[in-house]
Amino acid sequence: MYYLFKAPCFCCEAVCNGISTLCKESCKCCHGICSGLKDCWNETVGGIYHKPVGGYVILTLLTMTGTIALSGVAWATINCDKDDSVTNAKNALAVAIVCGVIHSLCVFWIQIAVLKSITKELDKEQSYIPETERNYDITDNYRTRVRRAIWEVIKYDFVFLFYFFFCPAVFGLGCCGMFIVPQCTGKDAWAAAWAFGGLIFYNGFSGLYFLWLMCGICCGAGTETVKTQVKKVKKGTAKAKSTTASS
Q: Distance from first CA to last CA of the chain, Å, rounded?
């Protein structure tokens, strides 16, 4: 009789243990997937994003990837009313693809140049420490370090100088492409319109971003100057008080 009444309990216990084991293994599997995705993010997009000007680099890559893809689709499918219009449109789309690649390479270079400038400054600060023991963590005074590094790149980097004049030229290419698009049939020109529109949006945004960046650099430099002057005044006041007290 004991086993007769206990048998259902054994069955329920076995089922519960099976469900518990299944849940544990599922959680392990989910944890492994999440860890893999996290590592993939940190080694690819996340690694770029968390570096200085990383947001701008990611925006550039996304925008230019879309522009290159749309330009390729448009180049293969576009059909204009006149032969010279087709030639002009395809030439402009080919140039748009090249410009997208150049944009991506330039922002990568600028980010690397900013990091090199920060590393150079840290090397100067830690010149008394052996190179293998130096700490390159920039979380301390992060904004100031990044602002100084960007200003050094703006002043002295040749690629940035090229990029400064390159962006307005590509903006003009996007506007020119928009004049070519109406000469083509609507169904075939949608990709071209989006591609040239992407160039206009991105390069217009880049101009605004540069102005915002310069304002940040100027305001930050002004704030640092004020803080330095305040520290000097406080030190001078403290010194004067100590001299008066001693006399």
A: 104
Is 29 inside a domain boundary? no
Residues of the chain falling short of pLDDT 70? 1-46, 131, 133-134, 136-139, 185-187, 220-247
Contact 53, 145 (CB under 8 A): no
Q: What is the DSSP string of 189-234?
A: HHHHHHHHHHHHHHHHHHHHHHHHHHHHHHHHHHHHHHHHHHHHHH
Pairwise CA distance, residues 40 & 66, whole Å: 22
* pLDDT value of position 79: 79
Contact 123, 76 (CB under 8 A): no
Q: In this structure, is residue 38 part of a structural domain?
A: no
Percentages helix, strand, coil for the chain (3-state, rounded to 5) are: 90, 0, 10
Q: Is residue 20 part of a domain?
A: no
The pTM of the full predicted model, rounded to 2 decimals, is 0.71
Residue 246 within a domain = no
CA 61: distance to chain centroid? 8
pLDDT of residue 210: 87
Domain that holds residue 53: 43-127+137-227
Residues 6+ positions from 95 with CB-CB distance below 8 Å: 173
Query: Using CA of residue 97, residue 100, residue 104, residue 110, what is the dihedral sign?
Result: positive
CA gap 66, 68 in Å, rounded: 6
How many domains does the chain contain in total?
A: 1
